[in-house]
Amino acid sequence: MGFEMEVRYGFHGVGQGLFSSGSLELLSRIPSRKFNWVYDCGTDSSQRCLDSALNDLEHDIPTLGVGRPYLDLVTISHFDTDHISGLVKLLGRFDVGDLLLPYMPLWQRLVIAFHAHRAHSSRLTSFLVNPVAFISAVPEANVKRILFATGGPPLEDPPRGADVPREPKRPPATGEQDEKRRGMGPDFAVVDTEELSDLDAADDRRLDGEYMKRAARNGTRVAYIRYRGAVVVAGCWEFLPYNDAQLAPMASTSFRHQVSLLRDDLLGGVKAVTTRALIALKALYTAEFDFVGQRENQNLISLFLYAGPISPGVTEIYARHVTSPHGWSFMLSDKGGVLYTGDGYLNTPARFNSMQAFLCSHRVDSLVVLQVMHHGATANWHAGLAGKIKPEFSVFSSNPLHRGFRHPHTVVSNDFASYRPLQASKGVAVNVALWMF
User: Fold this and answer.
1) What CA–CA distance (Å, rounded) separates 341 from 156?
2) Would the pLDDT of 176 be above 60?
3) Which of 1, 219, 226, 374 is the most buried (most CB within 10 A)?
4) Is it the case that residue 208 has pLDDT exceeding 50?
């Protein structure tokens, strides 16, 4: 491997929701430097569970008495309450390097907002209309950069013998950039991004990006992570986001056209004008598609995130959970990665194959931890999925006693029974520590 590192994966006990954090420390680097991250931050259970978890995380990240604790990467998978209800609190207590969000064109964000059945002035609607403006308005928020991960072209079964690259795209490493990538320079991580000026003038990303850049405050930058691009830490660790564009909610051509005509009104920053545009567009959408009474469907888009070593080695794994009779359980493995899925869908073999083709088999085969999709819901899973992934540990984050959901569902739990299932629930966390060499 060439590096010795300590990695920690934590799934906080927030009940029916998901709040996960992690850290990477290069032990062979002097002085040592930690890279801290968060994936989702929300719950449908008591907010006291979330507040307690935020306190624990704040305690775990030392500040040496200077400033606030720092998170290098915060990723939000999608926009359900049980995944983002704590985002504002998190931004108010932690400085953030990169905030990674799934990118959707404006018309798709509006469809999600309408299905959520929230007021036009609600936090969720404001966030979806212009996430950069929303984050910039959070008191005490300090985010260096907001990154959007776009969906790519459909990826069904790759042809046999297809030349699928083992590593994500990343910038050429020469001179100073190579030094930074190895963790020796001031930038501990590098990201392959696209410049707005390189995008076609009619590209939704460019149109959205120009408005969002104007809405940014306090030096926050806005960028798109290049398709198949990764966040590379010190040249030895990667975060690779996967945005399944095939699951994007759809709308008619006339609705999309009307959204483009009202883009200035929606993103111009004048609240009354934005509200009038939202009212008009919701009336148009309602006339075309009867969604009254349907449940919100934000999880049709859920940003997966793979994290793991670029060159795996031998891994000592310690896992702690209430089911471990002697505190920490121990095992040796050649695996080291984690796959966060949020509420994503792997409910058909084709969707699993698409995800695997994007991430490449060697990453899927190297998982120490799989965060099981949508708290273990049957609708997001297909029979035999666990045997295709074969993680060392399968983590369910939910409240099994929730009267409505009862996640995880029994058939999903049974499928993962051979892969060390661990339950994060109200007040009960899951912690996995790795020493790689």
Assistant:
1) 18
2) no
3) 374
4) yes
User: Which H helix or E strand runs over 55?
Assistant: helix 47-60
- Residue found by looking up tokens 């010190």 in the block: 234
- Burial (CB count <10 Å: 0-12, 13-18, 19+), residue 339: buried
d(CA 254, CA 378): 35
Give residues with Cβ within 8 angstroms of 95, minimum separation 6.
67, 68, 69, 70, 71, 142, 143
Helices (H), 95-141: 106-115, 123-129, 131-136
Question: What's this model's pTM, rounded to 2 decimal places?
Answer: 0.90
Can you read off the two tokens belonging to residue 432? 């996995």
pLDDT class of 284 with cuts at 50, 70, 90: very high
> What pLDDT, on the 0 to 100 scale, is given for residue 158?
42
Crossing angle of helices 271-288 and 253-261, in 10° steps, is: 170
- Mean pLDDT across the stretch 42-48? 89
- Whether residue 365 lies inside any domain: the answer is no
Euclidean distance between CA atoms 342 and 304, whole angstroms: 7
Number of domains in the chain: 1
**Gap between the Cα atoms of 362 and 224, Å rounded:** 26
Which residues are bridge partners to 10 per DSSP? 21, 431
Burial 187-215 (b: 16+ CB within 10 A, else e): ebbbbbbbebeebeeeebbbbbbebbeeb
**343 class by beta-carbon count within 10 Å (0-12 exposed, 13-18 middle, 19+ buried):** buried
Residue 356 lies inside a defined structural domain of this protein: no
Strands 393-397 and 367-371 turn out to be: parallel
Report the pLDDT averaged over residues 72-83: 87
Angle, helix 106-115 to helix 271-288, in steps of 10 degrees: 70
The answer to whether residue 87 is domain-embedded is yes
